[in-house]
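Record 1 of the preview.
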Amino acid sequence: MSDNKKTQVQEFEYKAEMKQLLHLIVHSLYTHPEIFLRELISNAADALSKVRFRQLTQSGPTENGDGELKVSITLDEENRRFVIEDNGVGMSEEELIANLGTVAKSGTLGFLQAMKERQQGEAGMDANLIGQFGVGFYSVFMVTEEVTVETKADGTDGCRWKSSGEGTYSIEKIERESRGTSISFTLREESKEFAESFRVENIIRKYSNFVDFPIYLDNKRINSVAALWQKPKSEVTEEELNEFYKFVSVDYQEPLSHLLLSLEGVVSFKALLFLPKEAPVDMLYQQGALEKHGPQLYVKKVMIQHECKELLPEYLRFVTGVVDTEDLPLNVSREVVQNSPVMAKIRQILTTKIIAWFESLAQEEPETFRRFYKAFGPVIKIGLNTDFTNREKLIELLRFESTATEDGEYVTLKEYVARMGEEQKEVYYLSGDNRRQLLSHPNLEYFRKKGIEVLLLVDPVDVFVIPSIGEYDGKPLKSIEKADIDFSKGDGEEDEALGSSLMEPVIRIFRETLGESVEDVVASHRLVNSPVTLVGSKDAMDSQVEKMLRMMNRDMASGKKILEVNPSHRVIKNLAGLCVLDENNPIIRTTMRQLFDGAQLLEGGLEDTADFVSRMTEIIEAATKSGKS
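->
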């Protein structure tokens, strides 16, 4: 744009210490220099939105005609020149001073310095300060030393604003026919990459791909992907959804499911969310892996945060997609969303809608839900101890394998309780490394004999989460590894064996032999096919929890357990017979120690395997010795 006549150039001085402000803006508030382009496109889109609103609310064309509302970027790589122009509302001289001088408002410097000291804006900032300084435009000084802005609003003269960001700026009248704004500058040598077409195109696609106006780069339209979340559900195709998911998630697979929301009320927002088909291992089991994840946050179709963790509680941050709102206040850099009541409300609504989405999948698409739960069930369980508002709904989503299900199939707590026998008063579970191991566990023998269903907890998260449920539908959840389970309704054969006086010396010698290695030795009501088993007292730590804690701390001592002895088992009966003949026979104590170590081996807690093998050899030798003396 040019002048045809000499005009007066007015010099203005920023009221605040502009040099310090710009230093903070350029070096402290923005993480990446490329952000400048997002800010300039965002400002252009705002100006275009105002024109569109005026078109919709006023009859007849505006002063300069309308044409296609667009953003145009022109590059000159050789001379490092950059120009961005829009045909939005433009600015008058007064608006130039107000809009590009807002950063000089009283208190800005102190506020920005405080942000720097608080590591670029943590929650708790004064809500009235957020977004009032217009510093987004000044991010351009990260890549240039001087900026020229030429602009014109309907009914006003054209103006040229120029500044090097050193504390002053100038404004002069110019002849400009078209409404809108043009911003031009020469890039610094170290920022010359932003004069390269492919670099600028990638930035536009990254941050501004869904701006609701065409963006042209050297006359080529760049933002070609539709903002699907703005469309009615009936107009969105499966193909579009799949391609959009791959775009926002960088996943080569198609999504497992999607949720399209359009809500108006106390807060208004649109969202398009997706469930991935698979979850990375580190997302499930690495502490803090989900902390910085979250959907993309857009405001008026301009991306503000690529991973907005504030949108969802941590246990739901595997959900990917886009949330777009016009109600959310932003901080001065647009990089950190202010922790405001609006954000809290959006988070609350999204959480409720997502859980309802899971419930719907469970009812209407059980196979899809089964696949989802297999991938993300461990993360959902974490929500039980963090999201108490939705705790009951999350409990209904829980699924478990059990002794009544096939491998890979699940049962809900509701289904389990519905098929409990009249005499059963508790929900039983057993935890371990895998289904095969659990099904062969001695503690399961009584329940399988009696046809009592037991939940099989094979997910490492279960042992930390499930005990916290306490009870379901009035039925306590109890580990069958505990010694306080009521087995009073045994059959006559068991009762007779338990009452035999022959068991008294066996129990006594077991106690003498094992000593401090066990909490106690008692006759068992639960064993059917195994001679012994280890159980915990009522308040003892779950064996799987103890196992994991010991893996993290090898110096941690194992907790003592109760050894239960099966009076009906042939080995125990044989020991009882040996005790009658000669209770000092060394094979008795060797066998007892071996039975105890075998029980420890099944629990994964046997430390001295060498002694175990040596003792086993001794017993085999005794069993195979000939009758000759």
